[in-house]
Design brief:
By secondary structure, the chain is α/β, with parallel strands linked by helices. It folds into two domains: 2-186, 2-enoyl-CoA Hydratase, Chain A, domain 1, CATH 3.90.226; 202-232. The protein has ten helices and nine strands. It has helices spanning 26-37, 62-66, 71-86, 103-110, 137-145, 147-156, 162-168, 179-186, 190-201, 206-232; strands spanning 2-7, 10-15, 46-51, 91-96, 99-101, 113-116, 121-123, 160-161, 173-174. The strands form two sheets. A six-stranded mixed sheet has the order 1-2-3-4-6-9, sandwiched between helices. The mean pLDDT is 96. InterPro entries: ClpP/crotonase-like_dom_sf, Enoyl-CoA_hyd/isom_CS, Enoyl-CoA_hydra/iso. GO terms for molecular function: catalytic activity. Belongs to the enoyl-CoA hydratase/isomerase family.
Length: 233
């Protein structure tokens, strides 16, 4: 169900179960985590996450949800997959086409960048079934869109289109082909991409983050100067 292909500096990870709108079963979560973390960021600095068949991801497969014997463990499994995306050594770009629902929204939230096509739609419909997004959604959603927008989306279950998702900050861009954004990012220096991701993801104190920022800049500057020196030899 998780299909991986490599094309130069971009690895494409496809949720490939179109007959179920790419809904995720427990084993799929483990495979997804492996696909986004088992990557050399120097060779492949960008992972592009997409869905097959005109949809991104319908979230958790409801047949699997109804058969879960340990629901807390199931939630933890999804959280581990989302955390693997967030902690990937590569920059992870979600290309959202068609429907992103529930856990699909949560996996997109874990990505470093979300790019929607004009036909993309987003919703957290769990409350309709007496559930909610427990793959890190209640943690990441308010961080990305703010508490007010997060409350609206999660409590109403309503569907938002690409333009509204852009307005609220749920996605960073709307593009006909989101992969072009992944390729655009991959043209930059892998070492700088990794440092920028690490610094922006850091949730330590301001003082500690500023110290780490300065140290990281110094390391990159040394490489930058070395590159200039070698180009002049």
């Amino acid at each position: 169900m998780i299909r991986t292909t490599a094309d130069g500096s971009v690895r494409t990870v496809t949720l490939d179960r179109p007959d179920r709108r790419n809904a995720l079963r427990p084993a799929d979560l483990d495979d997804l985590a492996t696909a986004v973390t088992d990557v050399d960021p120097e060779e492949t600095p960008v992972v592009y996450l997409r869905g097959a068949g005109g949809n991104f991801c319908a979230g958790a497969d409801l047949d699997s949800v109804s058969e879960v014997a340990d629901p807390e463990a199931f939630a933890r499994r999804g959280q581990r997959a989302a955390n693997a995306i967030a902690d990937s050594p590569a920059v992870v770009v979600a290309g959202v086409d068609g429907a992103a629902r529930g856990g699909g929204v949560e996996m997109a939230l874990a990505c470093d960048l979300r790019v929607a096509t004009p036909t993309a739609t987003f919703a957290e419909p769990g409350v309709e079934f007496g559930l909610f997004g427990a793959w890190g959604g209640t943690v990441r959603l308010p961080r990305v869109v703010g508490e007010g927008e997060a409350m609206d989306l999660a409590l109403s279950g309503r569907v938002v289109d690409a333009d509204e998702a852009l307005r609220m900050g749920l996605v960073s861009r709307v593009a006909d082909d989101p992969r072009h954004v992944a390729e655009e990012i991959a043209r930059n220096r892998p070492d700088a991409l990794g440092v920028v991701k690490e610094r922006l993801r850091d949730d330590g104190s301001d003082e500690a983050r500023e110290t780490a920022e300065a140290e990281a800049f110094a390391r990159l500057h040394e490489r930058y100067v070395d590159d200039i020196r070698r180009s002049r030899e």
